[in-house]
């Protein structure tokens, strides 16, 4: 093969190739978007397709933010800080969105966790594997890197990060249609925050992964204990 002969990985780095990649990666999740528990199968399919493109393009894991952190304690401390920051912020956000849309985020999928230890443990396993690791890898690690290339190719050098973060957050919100409009908007806003954390940490995905996992773990424990944080906030605001 001559050094100037185009290869498959050259095509996947073109504008058309990046758009086709994103479409194919999102397809399984889009098909099963409203399939309840089967949504995890769609996420798994999207991750598998993204891994194919990662291998086809010989992408370095450091580009995706999966390089081994130099200071693991620092990563853990920052992750806890991000999760602690998000908890009250999302509580206020949920209260405001519920009033604005006239409906709370639909979290019926998680009701089985309340007072049920086996369901809590199973939920935590799913939250860490699918919610924290696979979702962060897919949205922040893979998709955001491709969106940055795409918008950079369009000449949006100044706006490539805001544009990429916005599109990625909207897609994350659409992936949570089962939570209703309030849940979709809240998920999009939370996803934008995680994207900013990924950006400000020098594209270190581990901080977003652990912060996401800690946030979900806390929310599930509150649900298991029957602690209605939104009701507590409403009492404070009344």
Can you summarize this structure?
The chain is built from nine helices and no strands. It is mainly α. It is globular and about 55 Å long.
Number of E-state strands: 0
What is the H/E string?
A: HHHHHHHHH
Q: Please report the number of helical segments.
A: 9
Average pLDDT confidence is: 86
Low-pLDDT parts are 1-6
Total discrete domains: 1
Apparent shape = globular
Estimate what percentage of residues fall within beta strands. Answer: under 5%
Task: Give a verbal description of the structure.
This protein has 238 residues and is mainly α. The protein has one domain (8-237). It has nine helices and no strands. The protein has helices spanning 8-12, 15-31, 39-56, 72-101, 117-153, 160-174, 180-200, 205-225, 229-237. Helix 2 packs antiparallel against helix 3. The termini are far apart. The relative contact order is 0.15. Residues 1-6 have low confidence and may be disordered.
Throw out a few tags for this protein:
single chain; 238 residues; 0% strand
Secondary structure topology:
Layout: H1 8-12, H2 15-31, H3 39-56, H4 72-101, H5 117-153, H6 160-174, H7 180-200, H8 205-225, H9 229-237
